[in-house]
Amino acid sequence: MSPDSMASGSVRSAAEVNEQIRALWLRAGGSLSPQEREEYELLVVEWAAAIRGSVIEAA
């Protein structure tokens, strides 16, 4: 996942992003390479944005 894909406006739910985070950890066997760590960090930022979006919608 590149930063460009996040900036393009693709909107995924927090649940979808969370599933991708879980899959990443499973593939990595619990120890992330530097490239996997970068992917993980991007996913966490995307997940947090999705959570914020759902909280704003609920309000």
Descriptive notes:
- The structure is a single chain.
- The chain has three helices and no strands.
- The chain has helices at residues 3-7, 14-28, 34-58.
- α2 (14-28) runs antiparallel to α3.
- The model is unreliable at 1-8 (pLDDT under 50).
- It is mainly α.
How much is the radius of gyration in Å? 12 Å
**Largest sheet entry:** none
Strand content: under 5%
Distance between the ends: 30 Å
Global geometry? elongated
Order of helices and strands: HHH
Number of helical elements: 3
Mean pLDDT: 85
The helix/strand class is mainly alpha
Question: Roughly how much helix do the residues carry, as a percent range?
Answer: over 70%
Strand runs, count? 0
The poorly predicted ranges are 1-8
Task: Give the key terms.
mainly alpha, elongated, 59 residues, single chain, disordered N terminus, 3 helices
In short:
The protein has 59 residues and is mostly helical. It is 76% helix and 0% strand.
